[in-house]
Amino acid sequence: MKKGVVVIGGILVFFLIIFMMYRSSYNTAINMQEDVTEKWGDVGATYQRRADLVPQLVATVKGAAANERGILTQVTEARAGIVNAKTPEEMEVMGKKINTAINLAFEAYPQIRSTENFGELQVALEGTENRISVARQNYNESVKKYNSHIRGFLNSMFLNKDTFPKKEPFKESAGSENAPKVDFSK
User: Nearest CA to 36 among 149, 163, 139, 122?
Assistant: First the structure.
């Protein structure tokens, strides 16, 4: 009788160990699967940030450049008018226009800053692209850990392939090796 109890106890311990291994493997796979989903969501959120931010930045820079262009055009036209003036009265009128244009330039826009705005746009674009790159790398790292776990020797036998399918890392789209074009003319 003692021998039978020891055998049954040994079998129960064996199945308990198998169950605990399965439970641990299953829970780890669930956590890793959720991590992959979260990391992909982070990639999507970063894409959305870019989609929201870039058009606003471009519009702001274009608006500032258009404002400066208008001011410079007024100043240039006023200066050209004084050079082309033939009489002292015309010179006086043009002089007033120049002073008005110059005062407008200083009051409305004291410094020409288009170049700075374009520089800031470049920095913002670079930062956004860096965020996207980091999010993709984090996603791929998460996929690698998950796939390594589910494809391990015992885990591949224990885990249902329908419940825990292999995940694909981020893959570039065709033509993505070419830099996107930013059009400031519109």
Answer: 139
What is the model's pTM?
Answer: 0.61
Which residue carries 């006023």 as its tokens? 78
Q: Which two tokens stand for residue 59?
A: 């519009």
Torsion angle of alpha carbons 161, 135, 38, 180, nearest 10°?
-80
3-class SS of residue 151: coil
Q: Where are the domains of the chain?
A: 33-158
| CA dist list (Å): 1 to 6, 10, 11, 14, 167 | 9, 14, 15, 20, 52
CA distance linking residue 4 with residue 25, whole number of Å:
31
Nearest CA among 118, 127, 114 for reference residue 58: 118
Query: What digits encode the pLDDT tens for the residues 125-165?
Result: 889 889 988 999 999 999 999 999 999 888 888 888 899 99
